[in-house]
Amino acid sequence: MKTVWLRKEGADELLLFFSGWGMDHRMAEYLLHESHAAGFSQDMLVCYDYHTLESEPGFMNRITCYGGITVVAWSFGVWVAQHTELPPIGQAIAINGTLHPVDAGMGIPPAVFHATLSTYCEENRHRFNRRMCGTGEALELFSRMSPDRETSDQLTELEELQKHFFNRTLERSTSWHYNHAVIGGRDCVFPPQQQFHAWKGVPQTVIADMPHFPFFHFRNLQEVLACCRK
Asked: Which of 97, 123, 185, 207 is deepest in the core (most CB within 10 A)?
């Protein structure tokens, strides 16, 4: 797992952003830029590239000093965050992802996941992005923050994630839990019904016209965090 500090100015609180598969720091960087104008003041660390789930050396030491930590995780990052050693978490928001990432009832249907894995190429990368974004407007916004990564690199990451998902030795109890789930009603990657099932008993915000890519609807981090205050 790779990490990049996007803001490290000695704030009392940290926002820890777990991005989705195939991403890099650029999406979180875009969100942080949009959030500054609205007065966002937390430090921010982004996690991405899940070829390995091991944190970089010194990761825990760098984040344990904060008075409060908020986790915002999107897509496969939802599962990865729960399998990452973290200090106590104040609040955690899952966006369009579950703790059962490949599952017929609570995640991506296995046949769909394996089809994506077995056919992923440059052409299908563009098809996946269109499906993820849902509309031309959202796809245009995504293009401004799309990752600077090769298709082959994304494919090997997905292959490693498959191994992680079915590695039973990774099952572990954590000291924190997600206390809010944001679900897109037009998510064509993690079907909404599976998300409803997976987050039963957890407070939810449902955005009927939101596709898997959520940041056409959430333009800054404050809008994401506001879900927990509803």
From this structure: 97
3-state class (DSSP) for residue 187 = coil
Instruction: Please list the residues that pair with 17 across neighbouring strands.
Output: 46, 72
What three-state secondary structure class fits 226? Answer: helix
Model pLDDT for residues 148-190, shown as the tens digit of each residue: 999 999 999 999 999 999 887 777 667 899 999 999 999 999 9
CA–CA separation, 81 and 73 (whole Å): 7
Residue by residue, DSSP assigns 31-91 as HHHHHHTTT--SEEEEEE--S--PPPTTHHHHHTT-SEEEEEEETHHHHHHHTS-----SE
Q: Which residue has the tokens 């409803």?
A: 196
Query: What φ, ψ does residue 213 adopt, rounded to 5°?
Result: -75, 115
Residue 10, helix vs strand vs coil = coil
Q: Cα(124)–Cα(142) distance, rounded to whole angstroms?
A: 16
Phi, psi (deg, nearest 5) at residue 161 = -60, -40
Average pLDDT of the segment spanning 19-31 = 97
Domain spanning 2-229: which CATH class is it, in words?
alpha beta
